[in-house]
Amino acid sequence: MVYTRPRHARAAVFASVVLCLIMVVVPTSVLARATTIVAPPAVNSSRRPDREYIPTSAGADDGETLFQPNSTERSPEEPLLEEPHWLPLLKRARRRKPPSGDAWSGDTTMRIIGNLGIGAMQAIQSSDDELLKVLDKAQNNPLMIDGHSAWGNFCAAGTFISNGDIISVGGQTSENTELGKPGVAGDGFTGLRVFRPTTRQFLDDPRKAHIQSARWYASVIRVTDGSALIMGGSKKGQYNNERKVDNPTMEFVPSKGSQYYSKFLHDALDSNMFPIAFLLSKSGHVFVMANEIAMIYDWKNNREYRVEGPPGGIVRTYPGSATAVLLPLTIKNRWLSEALICGGVFNTVNMTNPGHDVRADEPVSDQCVRTSFPGGTRISGWHVEHMPSPRIMGDPVLTPDGKLLIVGGAQKGTAGYGNAIGMGEYAPAVGHSNAKEPNLTPVLYNPDAPRGQRFSNKFPAARIERMYHSAYLCTSEGNILAMGSSPNPRVLTKIDYKTRFEIESIAPPYMSKTRPAILSYPGQLNYTGRYTLTISNPMGCDNARVVLLDGGYATHGLHMNQRLVELPVTSFTNQSRITFRGPPDPTIWPPGPAFLWLTVCEGNIPSKGHKIMVGDGSSELNLLLDPPNYKVPF
């Protein structure tokens, strides 16, 4: 089936309460009309050369010649709206003109474009060019459902699964004083909530679906059969984990039987919540890091293989909350999995629970570590780089041209709220935050640049801090949305690090350039299948790339399942048709949704993205949303 892009996106704006939280649904085209961001000359350096992985015919078979495009050498308080909806605030943009170059050269602009009416603890783009889910905990937000909060999904985890549904697992209870009254958020620790974007069906009924044990601050990764692997968490909401409430187990949705005990997660106490996890190409195993240790997990056989952890004595998972990303899987590197982990908190800080002794001015690391996974249960060792500034709680946002934008967070302290010495509502410089000195300047990372030239930080500073309980997403328009921030137990607006409802748009310079367009495209890809795009290429470039991108389920600085994969292009005809191949196998892209992008010219100028499916869309969870098991939330 071929879908043709509609001439005009729908102008509707939907607001609803979903999951534990409030869910706001908005057209991403509305959110893209604001901004531009820029990549200047690179700064900072690292110390060791990377290995090169340069294939000559990756993905070709039967005498087929892959189209190989040219590439560089790898080596003071805003008023709340009475009725929260999208209103431009018409704020003057900040601009800075960098040198000319690729998709990131040009004017830089950031603008506040609206007011959410809720915070933004969790976010995911669910539909093509149309719907964005913004999720916040059940608290005293201005935007409610029937005058009260919704379900207990505070600090949950989530992902797409193979049939395109979004699942949200775990959570906590409401922080609303009405807890226990009918219709107000209750216990969400074992919650399993299912949302189907195509029909807006929604299931949140513990009698029909729930996970096997209580989980707060768990992580989720989609594996090669399209199911979701759920890892770890705590049985109780508190600053850090401890033995008596730890949940060092793993389970699957759909279920594969009893949950599994993980010695690795147990050994990673105390700071083992929100573990970092990436699905690895070739092997299909899962790389997991928690606290300072790491493993490769063979989920099919429930075997844990310890590998060397990063150097530096840095806690990189909550409340250390480093920035972690699986770098783009490209044809040039034969779809080799590579990970980058940046920032975190030094292990000399006492974050044990109980008995922690933390301050909002604790030093934070600027170190990045990078490694690759050549297959099996091995890693290639850790290579150290340094960001232009220290950062904790930063978000990693992959953009369709293959760059990484590191945004938000703080330069001192730890993640969380209510634990730092000297904090509180009568300490306005910090309030309840466990961190201070917001990091307002984005950093661009080019994975393919030579070492020492990968970081760029000459961006204008953001107007609004985005610290604990904030989220960023790259939309299908290509702009990046900055939402939320509330290191507070409830909505507070009279302190410096207050609850933020403003939404800010960051539009990379490519958004103001002449861009290609995908005119028609396949709605479904099978592995290694052959497909054709009809395109508009007004720049007349004679090279092109086709990529899949999933921005992931963004929460607490994690982008669960974020992934970018380049697909093999086999022909580029008359500037109007591109023939390409589907992903080689499920280890490269697991079954489930993706956004399809086209980039052209040497600077990789991207089109807009279009949601498609990889695989046949099957899942055991399909039955859960058959009548009468579902309700329509809006």
UniProtKB/TrEMBL annotation:
It comes from the Eukaryota. Pfam families: Glyoxal_oxid_N (PF07250), GO-like_E_set (PF09118). The keyword Signal applies. Residues 42-80 are annotated as: Disordered. Residues 1-32 form the signal peptide. Residues 515-614 form the Galactose oxidase-like Early set domain. Residues 153-510 form the Glyoxal oxidase N-terminal domain. The keyword Protein transport does not apply. Keywords: Signal. InterPro entries: Gal_Oxase/kelch_b-propeller (IPR011043), Gal_Oxidase_central_sf (IPR037293), Glyoxal_oxidase_N (IPR009880), GO-like_E_set (IPR015202), Ig-like_fold (IPR013783), Ig_E-set (IPR014756). This is BZ3500_MvSof-1268-A1-R1_Chr7-2g09487 protein. It comes from Microbotryum saponariae.
